[in-house]
Structures are given as C-alpha cells and as structure tokens.
## 1
Amino acid sequence: MKKSSFLNLFLYCNALLLTIIIGNYYYEKVTPLAHNAKTLMVNNLDELILLNEGKKDPKEFTISLLVSSYSPIVEALVEEFQKSFSAATARPYTIRLYNAESNYMLLDAMVKKLLTSSDDLIWVVGIQALQVVANNILKHPPTSPIMVSSVPWSLLQELAEETPILNKYATGWAATCDWALRIGLMHAMLPHAKKAIVVHEAGRRLTQREEMLEQLKAHGIAVTEVVIVDVATAINYVRNNLDGIDVIIVTRECGFISMIDKFINLASNYHVPLCAYDMSSIVKGAACGLCSNETVFGRYSAWFAKKLLLEGVRPSELSFVDIRDWGIHAMINENALASQCPNFPENIKFLMGHSYVIKESLSTIERELSEL
C-alpha cells in the first residue's frame, strides 16, 4: 500500500514537473508586441502538431500569420500593422506566427491546420503561402476570413482565375512592380554595372521576371541567374558565381531575403555592391536599392483587418487592391556603399542629395519618413 502510494506520488510529481517545463517553453515563445498584442512562434512540425487551441478568451482576437519564410520585410510589415490595428481597438489580440522556413511540406501542413482552425483571421503573406492556400482551399473551405498581403498583382490575378473560390474567402492587397523605373534608378546609382547576378530560390515565381531581365538588358547589363535549392548552401552558391559581377540583386520575392545579413557580409568582403528591394535590407547594410515604404503596406493590412474583424465585413464584399509601386524611392546606405563599392562614381555623390541616404542609424530613416 505504501509502495503504491509512493509510486503514485512519484508519478504525480514527474507529471507536474513536465507540465511546468512545457508551460515555460511555450510561455517563453510568447513575446509582447504591443500593449494589447502578443505573438506565438510556430516554426516546426512538432510544434504544429502539439499546438492546442485550448479555451479562448471571447474578448481576444486570434490572428494566424502564415509565411513561407520570415524576413525583415515581414517584420516591418507586422510592426506597422500592430501600431495601426492597436490604435483602432482596445481589444487584446494574439498573432500566431506560422513560419515554414522555406519548407514546403511544413507549409502545406500549416495551411491544412489553419483552414480548419477557429482563429478569427488567417493572414497570408507572400505568393508562396497563398499558392499553397489556393491548392488546399477547395478540399478544406475555411471558416475564418483570409487576409492577403505582399503578393504580386499579376500572380494574384492568375491564382484568382485558376481558383475562383479564392475571391469568396480571401481579400487584401497586392502590388505591381514597375521594373522600368526600378532598373533605371539602379543604373543611375550604379552606372558602371555591366554584369549583375540575380538571386532567387528554386520553385519561386519571380515577379515579372521577363520584364526585369528585359530592362537589365536594355541598360547593357548582362545577367547571371543563380537559382538556389538548399538554404544552407545559399551563400556558397553566390560566392562561386561572383567572377566579374558588378552588382548582386536580391529581390523581395527571393526566399533568402531572410538571410540578408549573410549577403551583406559577402558583398562587403568581395566589394560587390548589394542592391535590395526593401527598406529593411538597405537599413541593415545593402549598398542601395529601390523600395516602397513598408509602413504603408502595414497600414493597408491593418485597414483590411479592421474591416474583417471590427466591422464584420465578409471577404467577398471587399475587392483585392493593387497598391502598385506606391512611394517608391531610391535609397543609398552611404557606409555600406563605401565598403562594397570603394571607388563609386562621382554622380552617386550627387544622387545622395536627391535620395533617402542612411547615415548611421534607423532614426535617420524614421526622421526622413516623417517628412514624406
């Protein structure tokens, strides 16, 4: 009898200890984002399977954010979304970040789970995530509204034609890239460039790829495309193809934008300027780029969320919006340019007076954005 009681007590204590450990593990993964927001990171299959919805506070919104890979672009988008959405409501909300880390099988598993979840809003960022949603939406019609962000307009139209039911369950914004403007400005900043390397990931549909290549050719720039399959060897792939390269181009659609720090180090070590197409990457240390104001994209996403969550509007009642290249401007990171392109031409010094030049810190960017 005593032996049995001791065994039961031992098992109970172990179970309690395990519960505390698991509880602390998930608690540590919840990071405050705003006065009424928190986020839960889910980035592997085990976490996805173990994730228990549990009892939900009826006053709290649950927003599931789905991305193929997390990057500075997504981070900036979410940050501005929080500011705008938190200003619109005092209700608390949780953002669950489903990060597939460029793993298609994990992304597919996440989509299947989300489409059958009871979350208040499914927020899909990027064409890769939306493509998988479209592949599954007929078999698993969602009970939650879907909000789409940061998707190329032309590819969104293609998906909507292939899967018309998408218009019933989803709404949001997309963007059209003006590559003639973008490449023209890049050439003005880097007039010496005769050969460029364009990095993108195997399986990804590079937005308006043909138009971009056509514009590079029109400016006399030969292109080497590096298609990367394995994330772990991405930098080696680029390094092995740098012979005679004058500029490295990493587009917003590249899955390896999440590794931008490594690309920046590579560009600095080999003195090849890195051209990016998002503000965050240029702030971090890309030499130059043409980018839209990420804060505007966050506000657009918050506007759709307000309509869907606060006003109860159905996705089918809101048309998708094409933002186009709103507010695009040339940006030069002066310190990075000096490191990656030590002998940059004199006309770049002139351009520095007519573009948003990053001097030392993000505060410079914030001050300049306030003047827009």
Note: The two ends are 78 Å apart (CA to CA).
## 2
Amino acid sequence: MNVFIFAILIAVYLFSLTAISLKLRDILKNPHKYQETALENKAYQEERKKKHCWFFKSLSHQYSFVSFAVCLLLTVLSAAVLYGIFKLIAGNSTMITPGPRLLGVIAMFFLNIDLGMVILPLHIKTTFFAVAVKDAFNGSRYSIWKKSYITLLIFFAITFPLYALSANHYIFYDHHGVTASGFFEITETYTAYEDIEEVRISIHRDRQGNASSLNYEIKQSNGRWLELNTTGYYNQKVLEIHKILETKENCKATVETPTQEDIAYIENHVSKETLDIVKYIFEGFHRS
C-alpha cells in the first residue's frame, strides 16, 4: 500500500511540475495576456478611495490577510491528507508519530504561502484580490504573474518531495509486531515481537546535562535500530509495547541506569502518570 501511495505522489509531483512549467512558459511568451491593465487600474483606484486600518502599512497589506487565511487553510488540508494517508496505511493498528513527519507540513506551509497568497488570488480576477497581491511582488500585474510562478516552480520542486517522503515515514504496531518505514525508505519493515531480540532503554541529555528525553529502541528484523519514543518522555504506547516484549523470553533489555539528578529532573517535568511509566520501563523487564 505504501509503495502504491508513494507512486501516486510521484505522479502528482511530475504532473504538477509539468503544468507549472507550461504555465510559466505561457506567461513568458505572451506577456500581453497577463498585463490585465483594466483590473490593475481598478486596484489602483480602490487603493486611492479606501483607507486602511492604522496597524496595516497599506490596503494591500490589509486585504492580504484574507489570502493568508487561505494559506493556513491549505496547510490544514495538507496535514489532513497526510493524516488520511497514514490511517489508510496503518488500518486498525496504532500509530506512533515520528518527528520528521512535521517536516512535510512545514514544507507545505511554505509552498502554500505562494500558492494561497499570490497564485490563487491572481486567478480570482476581482478588485479585492487584485489589491491583495500588489504587495506580494513590486511591479506590474504581469511582473507579479511571472515572479509568482517562478517562485512556485522553485518552491514546489523542493517542498513537495519533503511532503511525499513524510507521507512515507511512519511507525505503527498491533498485537503481532511493529511496522516502520524510514524517511528515505520506500519499502517498509515488519518485525514480529518474537523476532525482537533486544531493546535499548536510555537517556538523552541536553547541553546542561538534563534528562531532556528518553529513548526506547528496538532491534528490527533487518538489523537496524528503531526509536519508538517520539514524544520526549514515555507514553502509554511505549508502555504497551514494553509489556508485550516482557512476555517474550528471547528479548533482552539493555537499560541505562538513571542518576538521582535524572530522576529529580524528570519528576519536575512530567505528570505522575508519566513518571510511573518512566519508572516502570527503567526497571527493565518484569519477569518472574
């Protein structure tokens, strides 16, 4: 399933790059189509007639806040699509959110700045949006068309691959094992709990020596180590996997012993429920 979805995203990427390139070529070859003098004059008259609020530097700046709201909406939709892809791949399994996943949403936000604040308003040929885009790029209406599509081509070429890679980066588990796909991996790795031979439980300390986050790594079937704790301190998901692995006699736990300073720091930064989970996991496997 993940390979199929990744192939669709690659197809979308290539199709969109082609469409943007063709549009940019048309803009460069036919500048008269994009001068839109009448609409540009209407925008100029609108700015002369109306006053803007004192905390905006211009009427264009004021109107562009609507476009910025469109940018945020597009980013939310991008995040929703990303979440939908993960749910489609994971099915009824429990998802663990890897840190780099946020990179895809951030990448789409930067793309949507140009898409939502310039490209879409340019295509909505009303006086309001003609005023809104005037501060985006200085110059004539044609100049705004040209610069915005050059920017879109560059941004899309860089950001969409990050979004596609984020969509293919996930971890999920069920009662049988753990499935994971790395950020730069197309295929996924499934590891049954019976095949997990070792767990590493350790502490990550910041520059001040504080226990800023905790690690819970499992050795996958391909021999690579996989970090399951992506939330700083342990949560119920990590505890659930830990308790399953406790029942597997072939799995051993390598535990870094926390210092009193580590324990004191963690106690001051987590809830009692989280602290109980941390203490339980750092005791290793509870086997009779």
Note: The mean pLDDT is 91.
## 3
Amino acid sequence: MKKVGIILLLLIMSSCAAKKVTIEEIGNSKSISVYETTKDFINNVMQLNAKIIIKEESKKHIKVSKIFDSKTELKIKNWRSFWAIEYNNELYFNLLYSKELLRERVFAKLDIKGKLCAVIIDKDSPEILKPSKHSNVHVGARSISIDIYKSKREQPLGKHHWKDKNGNSKAILLIETVYLVPKFASRKEGSFGFYLNYSFLKDLIKDYNIKNVGNLKDVNFERVIEIIHEINRQ
C-alpha cells in the first residue's frame, strides 16, 4: 500500500512539473526581459531573463506562443500575466491590462514610456490593435464583468480620436502608472490602459496643473503628445 502511494505521488509530481521546450522551439526563440508588474517597471526592476516564442509580429505588436526560462529551458506558467516585456530594445505592454483593447497573449509596443505610457494607433496599425465591439468583455471564451475594470481614470469612451496637423485620425491608449487596478482573475495588481478621450485629458490637465492648453476642442494630436511629455517631465 505504501509503495502504491509513493508511485501515485511521483505520478502527480511528474504531471505537475513544468515542461521543457523542444530543441526546435529553442532555435526559434528570442531573448526578452520581463517586468512582471507595474511596480517593477516604475522601479526599473527586471525580474527575469527569458526567451520568447513569437506566433505573430508587426512593427507595433507581438503575439506570443510561449515564454520560457532561458537557463532551465522550462516553460513559465504565469507569463500571460506579465505586465510588460522588453524585446529588441523596445518595451511592449500586455493588452491583458487594457479594457478597450483587451487581448490575450498580445503585447503592444509602447511609443511613449514614463509616468504616462502610450500606444499610438492609426490607420496603418495592425487590426489586432484596433478595437472590436467585444474586446472589452471577453478573454478567450471566458466572459469577464466590466465592473472589475473600475478605475479612477475610467471614463465613458466618448470621442477618443485626435486629428494630427495633416488631418489624420489617431487614437492613444494611455497607461497612467501611478494608478493601479487590484489583482483579479489571472492579472497581477497593475496599471491599465484606457483610450485617451476628452474627459480623460481634461482630468490629466487639472491633476498635473498643465497650463496654456486653451480650448480642448482645438487641441490636436501633436499638442496631446506634448502634454503627455510635459507630465512625464514632472
């Protein structure tokens, strides 16, 4: 009986053990560094040197197949909750921490990094970075209550496209790293990305005491980017 118990224990342990990646996967992998949480990013603490296997890639995003430890070659189980990864000297934000652009396994390149981080989306951005009517309520096949996204910065979506000086329309997914959404489901405590609309911009201007903005209706994309950089310099 004791022997049977030991065998069962060994079987359970072997089934729970992390699996190694294949030689082929190692050959196709790329090196990355990881910010597991927003606080790690703020404190510039990279928790892990790892390798990534990319399923899909553009100049603006990567879709991940798996991430594994570069030393042990074991698959990392909780990689889907990493807040951000650094790949090819660029920082990519996990869209699992977004409302309007909620995506699993997809990381979007940050065009602006700092207290305020931003992903700029325009007509040339890949479709996966453009919102769908279901992108704020589904994670794969699992439906998630919108109530869990409540944040100081969440606003009714409203108008969230900004015209640049050439008349081109652009959207900005903004991540304000000083505000953290509590841990829930598979996500760690972390800052979420929200579309920057007029209400959100108005709050930022007030909270960070930005001067000489004028009428918000006259603010173009270039001025919005200036405001974001001005806040990041504070």
Note: The mean pLDDT is 82.
## 4
Amino acid sequence: MLRRQMLLPGLALVAACAGDTPATRDQPAAGARTDSPYSAGSDSGAVRQPVAGTNTGVEFEAPRVVPGVLASLEQVKRQPDQQNLTAFRGGLGRMEDAMRSDLARVGLADTGEFQALTDSMARDLGGGAGSLVDEPKAGEVPRLEMRVRRLIQVHEQMMGSVRK
C-alpha cells in the first residue's frame, strides 16, 4: 500500500516536470534578424514581441564613429584653430574607445601598433579629451591626418581578419 502511495505522487511529479518546452523551430538562429530589440538568437520572447527589422547580431561601434572623426579632421585641415582641434580630439577619443571595444568584443589583442598610434596622437594633441589644446604647429595637421587614417586602416585590417 505504501508503495502505491509513493508511486502516485512520483508519477504526478514526472508529469508536471515534463510540461511544455518551447519549440526550437520558433527560435531564430544566433545573430539572425528578429523582431525584438532585446533579443538574441536563443531568445524565444523575440517571436512574441515584434519590433520589425531589429538586428540581433553583433554591431561594431567604430564604423558609426569613423565618419564623424573624418569630417572633423577635414574641418581641422580647413581651419586649424583651437576650437576645431579640441572638438576633433574629443571625437578621436570616442573613436579610439569604440575601436578598442570592437577588438575586445571579438577577442583580438593589440599587436602594439594600435596602442603606439593612439599614444602618438595623444602626444600630438597634448593629451586625451577633457581640456583645450594649443594651436596646431606647422606640419602637425598632416602628420595627425596620416596617423588617424593609419589607425583606421589598422583597425579595419584587424577586424577583417575576424570576418573572414
């Protein structure tokens, strides 16, 4: 009798635990385009909370920042004054941070060239963001432009090695 009494709650427990599980066919693949701004490929809630056209894949930060830095650089080339150079330095700092974040996101280590370029640019501009810079000296803007473009190239090469 005791055996039957234990068997019945045991079967009830097994039946309760074997309940509904979400079907894998309803879940998007990792990095797939879904309808949820808060979703990942394994987020089953993405199917039930639509916001059309939301990409759940990894989005790198630097590609969004680079055009603004290049536009700011062009402004510095046209009018190399303290105000433009200070604004450029702030944008450059954001771009460097975004590039470092991208490299960390994909697990890449700096070979030394990236850090050397950012250090050189910081020296050229009198330090990092946060204070006014001095008026640019003769020949400083072309050298700075060369280093900025080289930094973008180094970042693209490093990121390109991941995408292949």
Note: The radius of gyration is 27 Å.
